[in-house]
């Protein structure tokens, strides 16, 4: 019974592991860290000043080689490292009521310290919205513009129910300190997909957010040029910025861990099954044999 | 009352009620012991004061003055309590504050509250306000609703009780009018009709009987069903209350809880009359066999004795719970450590980032919206660390499993339900079910190492049977059952035959002697002997009709079974007691009805150990009959005459007690008229004395009880209860030491010891029987030396108790009460302990109640072993309360023992199923449940902790606050309760077959520090699996906090429930439903929470459930988390199997029908059971098949649901039955709580 269950688990897990490993193998992923390289040489020692200065030109061009054929859609992510989007102060600094309906525009209690500016309520309020990511990417392949589709990058449920179509940005990024992207005040929040994506706060301090989708296949050795507006300040807290292009399969993005884990667990179960088989063979015991009972084995019984 | 005391205790029912300060200082007598023991339990000083009051003589200051028939004047100076009673605790107004106050007596709730309050501070608000208060509010609400319901029931019963009516003499008027109980006041005169309940404590004034006798049944008071006689005083008898009115003054002691004591006097017609306990009838009693009785109210309402005696069930704490507290402390330490780690790391992180924090997008220390740009919500690193610490306490609070306390209570209630329902604990003879009076020590039953048993009524039936007599030095013990024909010769009244209800064996030779004509000396003596048996008692003969109009049965009612046995014996030999009034008795002596005047009666007390009556015979001679214990009787017997007879009698006594008989010596003396007159004046003076009446009466008795000549001795057999030897054998095999503590003589005790297989012939007996401290010391030292010597001969002998074949000579220690006086509470205790613990059997004889408690304490204080005391009488109360577990036998001797006990049952042999089966199950389940609860909460806390490490130590939880709060309340609570109630590691049959399996509880195999640590290690591993598998899989992905949180929530709930499922021994549909139901319920809750748009995690679960990764991760977590545990379990079970494991395998592979039995969830239904026959019919597949539709539906259900329609139907019925039984049990408990 024990052997069967171990063997069974092993036999189920090993194929799953192999399948997910191969799925992970199929994923083509290009990761490009640009936060350091996108700062001109002369500013390398004062990155913070460079990024905070609104006058400097923050355009930066990166070239990416496609290592394997990437089938469309190719997802474009930005990855932030060391950005604690799950920090207690941060996750709580939002007003879901305000986001949802115009009637609650003034509900900004949870949004401190980014609740009001110039005495008026900020819409959308809170640190999360305030720190909206504002780097932009423009892709071109062989000097032909690669369209990035930025529609439907947010959850539909969020657009439909969480972010109101009658709520428009108001008084946003008008405080003393500008945190990130500005929002077009004429577009309702439900259409501001970058904001919606951003506001679904990440679980872990290193995370990716969907930027858009490239809806053409990319061929092997294609040379993609990305023009980055490097606006977002991760230098203040030692964060990293990465641009990620990736395809997906049924297990999501590139993820060797799952396969390895399944193989390990499955292998261990098989190993245990074999161990038990060996032990049963070399050290058999009749199940339910009363002569094994402690008081039968040893007249003195258990030491009391 | 206990008749276990000195063997010839039988005599008077009411033990020493008379106060006797001198006697009290030296020993505690039976009754007062029984009465004052409850005091410490209530712990109120007022009670002990009240009690003390009954011991003192009445002085005017503390007397209560009752003006008969003048309630106005009576209540003028002091307002005495009215007769309305109030058992309800709360009123509508006081309910909330009082109930909350009582609930917060629990430390756990205070912890809860403190956490909730902390959470209300804005800086610390980890959870939303609602979520943090919810669990506490929920628990408080549930308890409050339960309390409110109980209280409402009490209110209702109070109302009923207060609204009953009684006929009361209108103040100053001449007529009895109905009045509600609550309006009755002290001083009023009340008339009670037959079979009515008495509304308050009252002094009898007159009754329908011309001699003023009234019979009452006190079953509600002390559980004794026999009738007790109460008398109205001669002085008040003649007065016709409703014609001439009544005036008088009663001066009585203050209200006290001694139901066997009353001390007062009455001034009537300028005459002072003393009143005693036989003149008062108490609230709650019923008037029987008496057409009416009139009395004056002296105590009413809450001052009545029955109300003063109501005390709650004993509160004890189980061993497991005590140990659990140790682990709880460890967990608190762990909690503290986690919090410290978090706050230290947070401090380091803040220190490292202190320059970034002002502008850092996720921290933003600086607040720009205020003009002065102050820090927002930041108080410096020190404070920040402190806040982090408090917040981490809030987040990790469930490390201390508070819900465990509630679960444990529910589990115990469920276990109690099954114990109560168990057919094998049901006593058909007395129709008594098992009672669980203490709900919090169920699991202690599985860890008992010592049983201290009373003998009489516990090992024996306490149904006395007259066996043999020694008259004038001649032994008559050739008894044979007499045939009914023998009766025709006697007791003819008109044309009716009266015969005693019970037949007793008679000795033909003795019968012949009695019937023979002539006036031989032997015949004279034999006549006197039986006359003494028939007269020297307090038995009341009741005549009962039979279907045959020519025949009537005489039923002897008395409080002492020994006395009843003697009177039946006398009747069998032709001395039939047919009538008793307060002034005379009528005895049918060999067909001739004779009337004897009862001139005086000295009641039994435990100092004199004898009783006596003074009888005026029809031939005008005055005779004194005395009966009592041999020890006390031989002191007052005139040894100058007939020394041979005395010697012969002593020899016979010795022989009788060696047979295990209870012996009594009967003596008599004829009083000359001068002696009689002396006695009479002294007796009258003493019985009307206001001061020191008790001791005066005793002195009078001692004066007259002297120079007796011995008539003979009697031997009464007290039969062993059914199954006692087998039970003792089983218990011994289970490794439990059985000690017998009895008040009987040494010889009697030893012979009973043999007959119940406690002692065997190959045992070496060590007898300690000394009269001084030095000799005690010497005997003990010898005993220890002897045991050492024996142990040296056979090595490894220490453990023979548990083993089957003992390798050394088994030892028995027999010690008597006199020696114990010199040993207990002196430095010799230690020696006794050493000697006693190496002996296999310990028998203590002639021990007083307090000594019984002392012996229990001897073991309890020196070892960690669990002790159980079992007894049936008031003399066992002290040891029952002293022992860890007290079991009361609801037998012949009233309910004192039961009232003091934790568990009550009908027979000694029930101990075997109680301990070996239920005790084992309870312990095993409770132990598992505690460990499991620690585990399930810790795994959650660790999971939170790992996440905290990745949130810059800011204590964010990915899991929604509602899930955190509901986790221990809804997500995982039910299965552990169900398993705690229903799971059984082994079947009843196996447990009874191998008593040795009980050892697992004694060795604390199921719950100990090692297991706790192993569990915690497993916990850490599982939490790592739960946390890191998704963490690593989702690293560098777009996963949002809510989705991952939902995954973790589901993963932890699934893992925790699979963990439980893996450890379930016996599956039944309830277990299935609760375990899988809980997982489903969690999923539903998560889905509901994620369907609320204003919560940040809106729709997360739907989104994440749509990915294959999610399901793969759940599967992976479940397997990876379980593998080490499963492998460990499989490995140890196969290669280092415990006894339980082997026995289980045997059940599984060796006996197929046992395995089938496990399909049925409840033991009660698998056992043949009288009370369960209805169920059996319902569950009989044959009969239910007929009533059920067959065909398509059935086939459908069978094929798709895996079980047959019948089974489904049965299960529904089972659930209904369960529910109704559970409500019944609850009701009973509530009623009980109300009564007690």
Automatic annotation (TrEMBL), chain B:
Q: Where does ATP bind?
A: 454-456, 563, 604, 627, 662, 742-744, 846, 852, 875-876
Every P-type ATPase C-terminal domain range: 898-1138
Catalysed reaction, written as an equation: ATP + H2O + phospholipidSide 1 = ADP + phosphate + phospholipidSide 2
Domain (P-type ATPase A) ranges:
165-245
**EC number assigned by the record:** 7.6.2.1
Give the Pro residues compositional bias ranges: 1-19
P-type ATPase N-terminal domain location: 66-130
* The name this protein goes by in its record: Phospholipid-transporting ATPase
One Pfam family assigned to this protein is Cation_ATPase
Q: Does the keyword Amino-acid biosynthesis apply?
A: no
UniProt keyword Acyltransferase present: no
Topology term for the membrane = Multi-pass membrane protein
Give any single GO term for biological process. Answer: phospholipid translocation
Which EC class is the enzyme in?
A: translocase
Name the CDD domains on file.
P-type_ATPase_APLT_Dnf-like
Note down the stretches annotated as region Disordered: 1-27
| Location(s) in or outside the cell | Endomembrane system; Membrane
User: Which species is the source of this protein?
Assistant: Cocos nucifera
The record's comment on protein family reads: Belongs to the cation transport ATPase (P-type) (TC 3.A.3) family. Type IV subfamily.
Q: Which UniProt keywords apply?
A: ATP-binding, Magnesium, Membrane, Metal-binding, Nucleotide-binding, Translocase, Transmembrane, Transmembrane helix
GO-annotated molecular function = ATP binding; ATP hydrolysis activity; ATPase-coupled intramembrane lipid transporter activity; magnesium ion binding
Q: Which residues form the active site?
A: 454 (4-aspartylphosphate intermediate)
What are the record's GO terms for cellular component? plasma membrane
Q: Which cofactor does it need?
A: Mg(2+)
């Amino acid at each position: 019974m024990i052997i069967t269950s171990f063997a069974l688990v092993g036999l189920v897990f090993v194929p799953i592991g192999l399948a997910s490993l191969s799925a992970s193998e199929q994923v083509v992923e290009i990761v490009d860290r640009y936060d350091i390289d996108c700062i001109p040489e002369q500013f390398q020692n004062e990155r913070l000043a460079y990024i905070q200065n609104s006058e400097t030109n923050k355009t930066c061009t990166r070239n990416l080689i496609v290592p394997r054929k990437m089938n469309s859609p190719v997802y474009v992510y930005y990855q932030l490292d060391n950005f604690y989007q799950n920090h207690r102060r941060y996750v709580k600094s939002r007003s879901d009521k305000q986001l949802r309906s115009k009637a609650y525009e003034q509900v900004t209690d949870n949004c401190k310290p980014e609740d009001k500016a110039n005495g008026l309520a900020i819409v959308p309020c809170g640190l999360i919205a305030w720190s909206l990511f504002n780097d932009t990417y423009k892709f071109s392949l062989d000097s032909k513009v690669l369209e990035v589709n930025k529609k439907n990058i947010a959850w539909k449920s969020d657009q439909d129910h969480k972010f109101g179509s009658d709520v428009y940005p108001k008084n946003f990024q008008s405080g003393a300190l500008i945190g990130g992207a500005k929002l077009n005040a004429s577009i309702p929040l439900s259409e501001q997909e970058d904001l919606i994506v951003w506001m679904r706060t990440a679980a872990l301090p290193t995370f990716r957010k969907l930027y858009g989708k490239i809806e053409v296949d990319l061929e092997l050795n294609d040379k993609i040029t990305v023009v980055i507006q490097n606006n977002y300040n991760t230098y203040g807290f030692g964060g990293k910025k990465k641009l990620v292009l990736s395809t997906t399969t049924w297990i999501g993005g590139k993820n060797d861990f799952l396969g390895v884990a399944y193989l390990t667990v499955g292998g261990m179960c098989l190993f245990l099954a074999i161990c038990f088989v060996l032990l049963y063979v070399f050290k058999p015991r009749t199940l339910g044999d009363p002569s094994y009972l402690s008081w039968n084995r040893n007249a003195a019984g258990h030491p009391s | 009352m206990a008749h276990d005391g000195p063997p010839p205790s039988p005599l008077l029912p009411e033990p020493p009620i008379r106060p006797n300060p001198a006697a009290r200082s030296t020993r505690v007598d039976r009754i007062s012991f029984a009465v004052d023991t409850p005091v410490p339990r209530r712990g109120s000083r007022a009670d002990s004061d009240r009690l003390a009051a009954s011991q003192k003589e009445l002085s005017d200051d503390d007397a209560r003055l009752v003006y008969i028939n003048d309630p106005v004047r009576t209540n003028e100076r002091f307002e005495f309590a009215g007769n309305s009673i109030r058992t309800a605790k709360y009123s509508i107004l006081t309910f909330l504050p009082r109930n909350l106050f009582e609930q917060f007596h629990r430390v756990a709730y205070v912890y809860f509250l403190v956490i909730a309050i902390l959470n209300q501070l804005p800086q610390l608000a980890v959870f939303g306000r609602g979520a943090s208060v919810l669990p506490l509010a929920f628990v408080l609400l549930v308890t409050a609703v339960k309390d409110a319901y109980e209280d409402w029931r009490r209110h209702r019963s109070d109302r009923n009780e207060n609204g009953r009516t009684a006929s009361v003499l209108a103040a100053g008027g001449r007529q009895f009018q109905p009045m509600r109980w609550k309006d009755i006041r002290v001083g009023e005169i009340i008339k009670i009709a037959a079979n009515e309940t008495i509304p308050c404590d009252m002094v009898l004034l007159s009754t329908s009987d011309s001699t003023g006798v009234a019979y009452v049944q006190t079953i509600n008071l002390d559980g004794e069903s026999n009738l007790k006689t109460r008398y109205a005083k001669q002085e008040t008898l003649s007065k016709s209350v409703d014609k001439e009115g009544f005036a008088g003054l009663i001066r009585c002691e203050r209200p006290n809880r001694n139901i066997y004591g009353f001390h007062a006097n009455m001034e009537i017609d300028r005459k002072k009359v003393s009143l005693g306990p036989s003149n008062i009838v108490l609230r709650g009693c019923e008037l029987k066999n008496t057409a009416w009785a009139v009395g004056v109210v002296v105590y009413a309402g809450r001052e009545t004795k029955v109300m003063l005696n109501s005390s709650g069930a004993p509160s004890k704490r189980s061993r497991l719970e005590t140990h659990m507290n140790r682990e709880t402390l460890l967990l608190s330490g762990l909690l503290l450590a986690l919090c410290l780690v978090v706050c230290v790391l947070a401090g380091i992180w803040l220190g490292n980032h202190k320059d970034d924090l002002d502008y850092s997008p996720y921290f933003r220390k600086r607040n720009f919206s205020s003009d002065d740009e102050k820090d927002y919500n930041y108080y410096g690193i020190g404070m920040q660390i402190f806040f982090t610490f408090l917040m981490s306490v809030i987040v990790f609070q469930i490390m201390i499993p508070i819900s465990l306390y509630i679960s444990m209570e529910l589990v115990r209630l469920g276990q109690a339900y099954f114990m109560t329902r168990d057919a094998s604990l049901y006593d058909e003879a007395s129709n008594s079910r098992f009672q669980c009076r203490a709900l919090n020590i169920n699991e202690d039953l599985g860890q008992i190492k010592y049983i201290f048993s009373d003998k009489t009524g516990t090992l024996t039936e306490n149904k006395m049977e007259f066996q043999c007599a020694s008259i004038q030095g001649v032994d008559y013990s050739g008894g044979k059952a007499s045939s009914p024909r023998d009766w025709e010769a006697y007791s003819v009244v008109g044309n009716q035959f009266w015969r005693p209800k019970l037949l007793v064996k008679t000795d033909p030779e003795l019968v012949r002697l009695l019937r023979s004509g002539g006036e031989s000396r032997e015949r004279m003596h034999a006549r006197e002997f039986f006359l003494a048996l028939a007269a020297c008692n307090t038995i009341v003969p009741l005549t009962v009709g039979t279907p045959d109009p020519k025949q009537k049965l005489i039923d002897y009612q008395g409080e002492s079974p020994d006395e009843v046995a003697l009177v039946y014996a006398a009747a069998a030999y032709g001395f039939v007691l047919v009538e008793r009034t307060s002034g005379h008795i009528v005895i049918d002596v060999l067909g001739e009805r004779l009337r004897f005047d009862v001139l005086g009666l000295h009641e039994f007390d435990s100092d004199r150990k004898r009783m006596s009556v003074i009888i005026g015979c029809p031939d005008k001679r005055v005779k004194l009959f005395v009966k009592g214990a041999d020890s006390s009787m031989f002191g007052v017997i005139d040894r100058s005459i007939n020394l041979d007879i005395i010697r012969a009698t002593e020899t016979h006594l010795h022989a009788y007690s060696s047979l295990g008989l209870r012996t009594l010596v009967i003596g008599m003396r004829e009083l000359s008229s001068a002696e009689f007159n002396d006695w009479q004046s002294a007796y009258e003076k003493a019985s009307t004395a206001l001061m020191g009446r008790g001791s005066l009466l005793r002195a009078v008795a001692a004066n007259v009880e002297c120079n007796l000549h011995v008539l003979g001795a009697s031997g009464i057999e007290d039969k062993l209860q059914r199954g006692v030897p087998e039970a003792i054998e089983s218990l011994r095999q289970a490794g439990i030491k059985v000690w017998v503590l009895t008040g009987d003589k040494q010889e009697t005790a030893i012979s009973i010891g043999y007959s119940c297989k406690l002692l065997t012939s190959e045992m070496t007996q060590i007898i300690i029987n000394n009269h001084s401290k030095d000799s005690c010391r010497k005997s003990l030292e010898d005993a220890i030396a002897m045991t050492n010597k024996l142990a040296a001969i056979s090595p490894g002998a220490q453990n023979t108790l548990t083993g089957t074949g003992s390798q050394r000579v088994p030892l028995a220690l027999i010690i008597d009460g006199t020696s114990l006086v010199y040993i207990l509470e002196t430095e010799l205790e230690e020696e006794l302990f050493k000697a006693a613990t190496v002996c296999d059997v310990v028998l203590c004889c002639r021990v007083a109640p307090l000594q019984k408690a002392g012996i229990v304490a001897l073991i309890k204080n020196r070892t960690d072993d669990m002790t159980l005391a079992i007894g049936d009488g008031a003399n066992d109360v002290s040891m029952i309360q002293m022992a860890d577990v007290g079991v009361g036998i609801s037998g012949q001797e009233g309910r004192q023992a039961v009232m003091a006990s934790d568990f009550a049952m009908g027979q000694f042999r029930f101990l075997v199923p109680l301990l070996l089966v239920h005790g084992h199950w309870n312990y095993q389940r409770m132990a598992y449940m505690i460990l499991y609860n620690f585990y399930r909460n810790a795994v959650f806390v660790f999971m939170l902790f790992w996440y905290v490490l990745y949130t810059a130590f800011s204590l964010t939880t990915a899991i929604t606050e509602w899930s955190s709060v509901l986790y221990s309340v809804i997500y995982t609570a039910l299965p552990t309760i169900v398993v705690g109630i229903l799971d059984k590691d082994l079947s009843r049959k196996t447990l009874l077959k191998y008593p040795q399996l009980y050892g697992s509880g004694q060795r604390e195999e199921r719950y100990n520090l090692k297991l706790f640590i192993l569990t915690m290690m497993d916990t850490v591993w599982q939490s790592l699996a739960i946390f890191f598998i998704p963490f690593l899989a989702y690293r560098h992905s777009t996963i949002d906090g809510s989705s991952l949180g939902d995954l973790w929530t589901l993963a932890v709930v699934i893992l925790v429930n699979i963990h439980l499922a893996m450890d379930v021994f016996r599956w039944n549909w309830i277990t299935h439903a609760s375990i899988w139901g809980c997982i489903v319920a969690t999923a539903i809750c998560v889905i509901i929470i994620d369907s609320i748009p204003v919560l940040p995690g809106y729709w997360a679960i739907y989104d994440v459930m749509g990915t294959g990764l999610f399901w793969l991760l759940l599967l992976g977590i479940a397997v990876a988390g379980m593998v080490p545990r499963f492998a460990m379990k499989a490995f140890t079970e196969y290669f280092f199997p415990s006894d339980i494991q082997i026995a289980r395998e045997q059940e599984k592979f060796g006996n197929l029908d046992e395995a089938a039995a496990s399909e049925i969830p409840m033991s009660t239904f698998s056992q043949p059971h009288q009370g369960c026959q209805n169920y059996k019919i319902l569950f009989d597949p044959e009969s239910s098949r007929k009533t059920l539709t067959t065909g398509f539906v059935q086939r459908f259900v069978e094929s798709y649901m895996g079980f047959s329609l019948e089974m489904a139907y049965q299960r529904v019925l089972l659930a209904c039955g369960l529910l109704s039984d559970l409500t019944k049990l609850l009701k009973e408990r509530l009623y009980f709580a109300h009564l007690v």
